[in-house]
Specification:
It contains nine helices and five strands. A five-stranded parallel β-sheet has the order 3-2-1-4-5, with helices on both faces. 34% of the residues are buried.
Length: 137
């Protein structure tokens, strides 16, 4: 299975060792994300450190591991879908994720409730993805 992963799933995996982290490390899925995912993760570093209790060095190590499981796609590969994506998002930071999903014709993994409301790309929540992959007990 191939999916575009939203930054909220990466942030969740950084904050706690739960299902999001397990999914990002799964060999059952090939993940793709725009470069923007790294910017968002770094912009939320302070929040991640506070919520997770990990150190700066642990954050750097963990984000390196998680990002290594994501195929980072340059903006020029999906930018011609950004205008279309704008029509379906509430927040501008979501545009690259929808645009990439459109360009690659892939579903999106996100727990962002606003992104679940659009109908242009298929969206999986964490729970739905776990069920799809047979990982939910």
């Amino acid at each position: 299975m191939e999916l575009v992963v939203d930054s909220n799933c990466l942030l969740s995996a950084l904050i706690r060792p739960a299902k999001s982290r397990e999914l990002l490390c799964s060999q059952k899925v090939r993940f793709f994300a725009p470069e923007h995912i790294i910017i968002e993760a770094v912009n939320h570093k302070k929040d991640v450190l506070e919520k997770s209790g990990i150190t700066d060095a642990e954050f750097d190590q963990l984000i390196g591991i998680l990002i290594s499981n994501i195929n980072i796609v340059p903006q020029d590969e999906f930018q011609h879908y950004e205008n279309q994506a704008k029509e379906f998002v509430t927040h501008n930071e979501d545009i690259p994720f929808i645009a990439l999903a459109l360009a690659r014709r892939m579903p999106l993994w996100t727990d962002d409730k606003d992104l679940h409301k659009q109908s242009v790309v298929k969206v999986y929540s964490t729970t739905e993805l776990l069920k799809e992959l047979g990982l939910l007990q």
